[in-house]
Design goal:
By secondary structure, the chain is an alpha/beta fold. The chain has a single domain, classed as 3-Layer(aba) Sandwich (Rossmann fold). Helices cover 44% and strands 16% of the residues. Strands 2-1-3-4-5 form a five-stranded parallel sheet, with helices on both faces. α4 links the parallel β3 and β4. α3 packs parallel to α4. It is globular, with a radius of gyration of 15 Å. The protein starts with 19 loop residues before the first helix and ends with a helix.
C-alpha cells in the first residue's frame, strides 16, 4: 500500500512532500520500495526519499517486499538484511532469479561481517551500514547510482 509521507515538525504538524523536480524530469516520480521491519527506519527513509522526489512504497518483511517488487517493479529497492519471513539478500536473489530485480538496489544493515558483504556482491547490490555516517553513505550510494541526484540531494540536506 502506498503511503502519503508527511514530515512532522516539533509540534507534530506537517505538510505533504511532493517531488516536483524529479516528477518533471522523469515524466512521473520514479518508484522506490523501502523494506525494513523497523517502522521508525521506514518512516525516516520514506520522508528522505519522498523529499528527493521518489514515489515511495513500503514493506515490513521480506515476503511482502518480494511480492511488491514483482508486481510493481520499482526503479530502486532499499532493503534491510535482517527481516522476518525472508531476509533482504534472499529477496534480491529471488528477484534476480525471476528476472524482476529493480535497476538499483541498496542493502541497509547494522551488520559489518564479511559474509554479508560477500552476499551483497553476489547479488550486485550497494551496501550501506546503519550507523553514524548512514545518511551521508546513503546519499553517496544514490549519487553512485545516478549522478543526476547531486542537485536534489544537496538541496534537501542543506
Amino acid at each position: 500500500m502506498r503511503q502519503a509521507v508527511q514530515p512532522i515538525d516539533a509540534f507534530g504538524v506537517g505538510e505533504p512532500v511532493i517531488g516536483v523536480d524529479m516528477a518533471r524530469s522523469f515524466g512521473q516520480a520514479p518508484g522506490l520500495l523501502i523494506a525494513d521491519d523497523d517502522a521508525a527506519v521506514v518512516g525516516l527513509l520514506s520522508y528522505h526519499f519522498a523529499r528527493l522526489g521518489f514515489d515511495v512504497d513500503t514493506a515490513s518483511d521480506g515476503l511482502q517486499a518480494f511480492l511488491k517488487a514483482t508486481r510493481g517493479k520499482p526503479s530502486v529497492l532499499v532493503i534491510d538484511v535482517n527481516m522476518p519471513e525472508l531476509d533482504g539478500l534472499s529477496v534480491c536473489g529471488h528477484l534476480l532469479d525471476a528476472d524482476r530485480a529493480p535497476a538499483k538496489v541498496i542493502i541497509i544493515t547494522s551488520s559489518s561481517n564479511q559474509h554479508t558483504l560477500q552476499r551483497c556482491e553476489r547479488v550486485s547490490t550497494c551496501y550501506v551500514r546503519k550507523g553514524p555516517d548512514f545518511w551521508r553513505d546513503l546519499d553517496a550510494a544514490l549519487l553512485g547510482m545516478d549522478p543526476r541526484m547531486t542537485r536534489r540531494i544537496r538541496r534537501t540536506t542543506c
